[in-house]
Write a structure and sequence with these properties.
With about 170 residues, the protein is an alpha+beta fold. About 20% of the residues lie in helices and about 30% in strands. The strands form three sheets. Strands 1, 4, 5, 6 and 10 form a five-stranded antiparallel β-sheet that branches. A hairpin with a 4-residue loop joins strand 8 (about 130) and strand 9 (about 135-140). Helix 1 runs antiparallel to helix 2. The model has no long low-confidence stretch (mean pLDDT about 95).
Length: about 170
């Protein structure tokens, strides 16, 4: 397994391009519980370029009916990113001071139920985010009403190592 660079600029560029509209390559889950984590996954994929096609516990989207829960579910995305030791992006939970553009934020209730996944588009002079469901671009994180917050710093991406024999005919 080879560890690749996570392209934060590509993730943020994708967020800026699609924050206020929808990429027709992906289903809009706004009417089915929200589109925020679907959008965050699209942004992460723009910066990672690698999905994890492991059934149930991976992280991928082929269609609205053929995807993992981690692609569209707040808690499932957290579990995948924090626990991923296989192909695809991986992350660790960090403080607000360690978060960077292209990382994701998850907002939660006092009881610890996390319900929203915006993408960080800028960090100065304050943390700005893009998100779907209630579409926003460069909204200050401080304007959201939440009791708990966690920042997921994408550390890198794992991809299969190509072998020389893979290119032989």
């Amino acid at each position: 397994m080879e560890t690749l660079f996570y392209d934060r600029d590509a993730a943020v560029a994708y967020a800026r391009r699609w924050a206020l509209s929808r990429n027709p390559a992906y289903y809009d889950f706004s009417e089915l519980g929200g589109d925020c984590t679907n959008f965050a996954s699209q942004c992460i994929y723009a910066g990672a370029g690698v999905m994890n096609y492991t059934p149930v516990f991976g992280w991928y989207y082929l269609s609205s009916a053929d995807r993992t829960a981690s692609w569209t579910g707040v808690e499932f995305l957290y579990d995948f990113l924090i626990g991923n030791t296989a192909e695809g992006p991986f992350a660790r939970e960090v403080s607000a001071e360690e978060a960077l553009p292209g990382d994701v934020v998850q907002l939660g209730t006092r009881s610890g139920d996390f319900y929203h996944t915006p993408v960080i588009t800028a960090i100065e002079p304050q943390i700005l985010v893009a998100a779907h469901s209630y579409d926003v671009l460069d909204r200050p994180l401080s304007t959201y009403n939440f009791s708990r917050v966690r920042f997921l710093h994408i550390e890198g991406v794992r991809a299969p190592t190509l072998q020389t024999e893979d290119f032989m005919v």
